[in-house]
């Protein structure tokens, strides 16, 4: 049963013609009638059913307008890079000692960064890290020699972009409290990332079939892309 709040929201908005994000943001924010700071979310449907193979897209995007979230970062690295990781803002840093902590099931962090040489040891913990989505991955920028950049990027705001088996991608571009300017910056960063990823994928036709925008507890609107890709 729908709540009184939800019943007051506009009806069948997903059936309206597609509009650009600049026009829709005011409507989206107007629909944020809950007491908390709702997220502003994008939902993509991509053309993942190809003749020869399915598209499995997994990457990350740096959000220039931030994400509104504080992410607890852990770094597994050599002793020589521990100070660099700490100075860059990492919350937990270590080598073999941190690996043992993780092995014991203590996962008191939300993102894990690792240097390539330490991945040999860390990869043995796939059964622990994998189900939590915490295993470092070069495609996500979390296996790297440049620990400082990885930590700073993660702290400033990153979002993972990953499609499910039906070709859906969900990604948040910020909060209702964000300025339109920062939300648009984040939106454009997501679009640019998807455009670059298409060139690495064997896609016949357009990669994106449809995209909708909504708030956490709001209703969705069809979003018009500036160009198809």
CATH structural architecture of the largest domain: 2-Layer Sandwich
Bin the strand percentage: 15-25%
Q: Helix- and strand-based class?
A: alpha/beta
Which shape, going by the Cα principal axes? Answer: globular
Report the top-level CATH class of the largest domain: Alpha Beta
Defining key terms:
229 residues; alpha/beta; Ribulose 1,5 Bisphosphate Carboxylase/Oxygenase; Rossmann fold; 2 domains; 3-stranded parallel sheet; 9 strands; 28% helix
Summarize the structure in short.
With 229 residues, the protein is α/β, with parallel strands linked by helices. Helices cover 28% and strands 21% of the residues.
Word description of this protein:
With 229 residues, this protein is an alpha/beta fold. It has two domains: 14-67 and 158-222, 2-Layer Sandwich (Ribulose 1,5 Bisphosphate Carboxylase/Oxygenase), CATH 3.30.190; 73-156, Ribosomal protein L1/L10, domain II (Rossmann fold). It contains eight helices and nine strands. The chain has helices spanning 4-7, 21-30, 82-87, 96-103, 119-122, 126-129, 147-156, 180-198, and strands at 39-46, 58-62, 73-76, 92-94, 111-114, 158-162, 168-175, 208-215, 221-222. The strands form three sheets. Strands 7-1-8-9 form a four-stranded antiparallel sheet, with helices on one face. The protein is globular and about 55 Å long. The mean pLDDT is 92.
Tell me the layout of helices and strands.
Layout: H1 4-7, H2 21-30, E1 39-46, E2 58-62, E3 73-76, H3 82-87, E4 92-94, H4 96-103, E5 111-114, H5 119-122, H6 126-129, H7 147-156, E6 158-162, E7 168-175, H8 180-198, E8 208-215, E9 221-222
Parallel strand pairs: 3-4, 3-5
Antiparallel strand pairs: 1-7, 1-8, 2-6, 8-9
């Amino acid at each position: 049963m729908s709540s009184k709040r939800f019943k007051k929201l506009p009806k069948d908005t997903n059936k309206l013609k597609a509009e650009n994000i600049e026009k829709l943001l005011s409507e989206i924010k107007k629909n944020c009638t809950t007491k908390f700071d709702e997220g502003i979310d994008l939902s993509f449907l991509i053309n993942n059913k190809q003749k020869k193979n399915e598209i499995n897209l997994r990457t990350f995007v740096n959000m220039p307008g931030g994400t509104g979230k504080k992410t607890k970062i852990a770094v597994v690295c050599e002793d020589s890079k521990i100070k660099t990781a700490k100075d860059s803002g990492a919350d937990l840093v270590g080598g073999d000692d941190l690996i043992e902590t993780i092995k014991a099931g203590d996962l008191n962090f939300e993102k894990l960064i690792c240097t390539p040489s330490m991945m040999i040891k860390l990869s043995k913990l796939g059964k622990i890290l994998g189900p939590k989505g915490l295993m470092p991955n070069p495609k996500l920028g979390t296996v790297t020699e440049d620990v400082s950049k990885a930590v700073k990027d993660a702290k400033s705001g990153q979002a993972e972009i990953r499609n499910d088996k039906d070709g859906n991608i969900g990604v948040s571009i910020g909060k209702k409290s964000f300025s339109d300017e920062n939300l648009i910056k984040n939106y454009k960063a997501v679009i640019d990332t998807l455009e670059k990823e298409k060139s690495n994928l064997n896609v016949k036709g357009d990669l994106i079939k449809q995209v909708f925008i909504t708030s956490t507890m709001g209703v969705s609107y069809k979003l018009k892309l500036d160009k198809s890709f």
